[in-house]
């Protein structure tokens, strides 16, 4: 019985054959989303909806790479190399661009383009396997999927690099080009420490095909080894605590007494349902759905409630997986919708998919609101311009990423002796000194502290 089931699963993993289709619909769609995403993230940033966690931190990290240093962040911890928090050396790819355009907007635009790049292979796959019209609908639904939107809304993260890598790799795998799939997916181990396990699962799927079994086994072993090396050796070597802190409280340690049995809590089950619903659960038909397990495993197994909420960037990396799995699932269900059924079922599926994804999109985008009032943004811009370069500044989360390109920024609540402070005048963390030079503009106040202050880490 076990052999029969394994054989059946192996047959499901055979390559799919696509029809000839023009690449321009997918290219046009990806270009359109690139423009939309770029407009969206820049408007969000300029309306002061981005924050110190995490855009400010990553901007400081890429700035360090751009000037030939290991990544550090005064917002996160000036005494910690960020590779001791998460293993994401792929951020160094952005260093040349940040050197030319030293601003947080560089990271936001890069993320928008990386997200949009993942639209192309998924749309092209759908067009070549299901037809151009259905393929374009699926591409649009993917581009507007709530996981991508939340990833764009919640600042910048290293997982942006994983989006096109996963999308292109899965398309190559589905078409039977295992070598190309591994070559494209291999850099995932440089994106974040847990993504080596995702590569390992891809290796397992490749190993199901007899002709690529050896490659699959090597990929599975290599991906697992890369993740273990990252969390057990590399990250602890850079960490001031000499460990991988996400194994501790809030990470993957056992649940606290009040969270016993929480692996099957309503919040976690709802999250899994939300991830699968945009595909109308057709993704479950494809073995590609196994690629969800590493990311969902550490999220659902963790004790940090933020991992369970569908409000942050964690779900973005799952969207290429579930949409490719959905396309594959539809192909595997093809024997059930031939003839007249095909003319009826596929349009009905596309309509249902559109309704679900559009509903999710509206529910995800409306609560975000318009950002800070225009008066606040204008006053903040004026005061930011008054702060000189190569100084230390204490400020609030929403203002921080507008200063990281010119100064060493600290969180206001850290109470560091910085040279400047910029914050709302009624912020309870704001502390005046008798010798301060105070400039008020609208609801904001800029203070210069002439006393002993922290020196900047490095010049800009």
TrEMBL record:
The keyword RNA-binding does not apply. InterPro entries: STSV1_Orf64 (IPR018650). The chain crosses the membrane at residues 21-42, 100-122, 134-153, 159-176, 188-209, 215-239, 269-292, 312-332, 344-362. Keywords: Membrane, Transmembrane, Transmembrane helix. Pfam families: DUF2079. The keyword Lipid biosynthesis does not apply. This is DUF2079 domain-containing protein. The lineage of its organism: Bacteria, Bacillati, Actinomycetota, Actinomycetes, Propionibacteriales.
